[in-house]
Amino acid sequence: MKVLVLGAGQLARMMALAGAPLNISISAYDVNSDNIVHPLTQQLLGNGLAQALVDADVVTAEFEHIPLPVLAQCQQSGKFLPGAQAIQVGGDRRLEKSLLQTAGVATSAFTVINNETDFNAAIAQLGLPLVFKSALAGYDGKGQWRLKDAAAAPALWQELAAFLAADPQQAIVAEQFIRFDREVSLVGARNRHGEIKVYPLTENHHVNGVLSVSLARPLDTALQQQAEQMFTAVAEQLNYVGVLAIEFFDVQGKLLVNELAPRVHNSGHWTQQGADCCQFANHLRAVCGLPLGSTALIRPTLMVNILGEDQVPNSILELPALGLHWYGKTKRAGRKMGHINLSANSTAELKARFAQLIDLLPAATFPELEQMLQQL
Length: 376
Ligand code: ATP
Ligand code: MG
Ligand code: MG
Known about the structure:
Blueprint: E1 2-6, H1 10-19, E2 25-30, E3 35-37, E4 44-47, H2 49-55, E5 58-61, H3 68-76, H4 84-91, H5 93-103, E6 110-113, H6 116-126, E7 130-134, E8 144-147, H7 153-166, E9 172-176, E10 182-190, E11 196-198, E12 202-207, E13 210-216, H8 221-237, E14 242-251, E15 254-261, H9 271-274, H10 279-287, E16 301-307, E17 322-326, E18 336-343, H11 347-360, H12 369-375
Parallel strand pairs: 1-2, 1-5
Antiparallel strand pairs: 2-3, 3-4, 6-9, 7-8, 7-9, 10-11, 10-12, 10-14, 12-13, 13-16, 14-15, 16-18, 17-18
């Protein structure tokens, strides 16, 4: 099978790595350059989307911020999964919030802001503190503003007004600030027959809005059931095919959906060695019409993102059950450059191995890990 992936980043790369043993070959469409490239080498394979759509058996995406004409062109091919609607919903917080409402799943209270009247109404209706998010193009906590004190509202509005004026397509979604106990996510797959398999809930730790560590270990089954129910409601509402990720806030055992990602997800990278079938293989299986693989947790596993660095000490490779994954990208401050997966046979053993890993990593590059170890 030939699968064309919209986007040529690390997620397309890891799909290619997972697809090879299944005889699924991946080509990647770099939306910015309009080039078709090899997902591992970035070698140029062709120009333009039209011919690539003809050549592919299946078309999918590794990110949701894709121009509408490109989505329409892919939809037209009849080969696009999970399809234009799901990608659009993932890329526009207005559509995402209304989809969540239609699916009947809980999310933080919100309003949409297009002008100053809306801005003042959001504060009056939702109260403070508030989180403001750009409706389009937000990722890694970019395009977000916080408001704690009413006194800061006029200055914030000046900033938001300038942001809105710069792009007529944009809007802002105001959300109640949630005092959550922790953040968790559910990654799962739905195939063409409507069969759903989900991985266990993953606990996620963010630093400055960017995922730093994900941890998969046996968790409360009631919480897992709640998440699975919400996942099923959203996936069925979208008639979704492929891997879907849902981020939640856990508020005293009650889950609220933060957002969804219509694709494989950073918080699912641990599945490369914590599950028999990783999220990348399961995404390809789903979109190619193959049976889904097991999503059961085979051993507690955590993932550490490598941000803004292109080297780590080789000595970490001496640790048992450690996987190092580089994305082959050029170094830039804060950029997702790679990740480390670490597994063990029990949570206690994982904690001990994590402590060993932290000792080997330069503290300046990974300043938050020590604190996360304490939370384990
Ligand atoms: P991602 O890279 O996950 O796509 P994003 O830019 O789409 O990030 P969100 O996931 O919406 O952003 O927000 C980033 C982080 O900000 C969340 O993981 C959470 O820690 C915090 N956050 C977002 N919304 C809220 C909220 N309503 N209340 C409290 N914290 C929030
Ligand atoms: Mg997001
Ligand atoms: Mg998020």
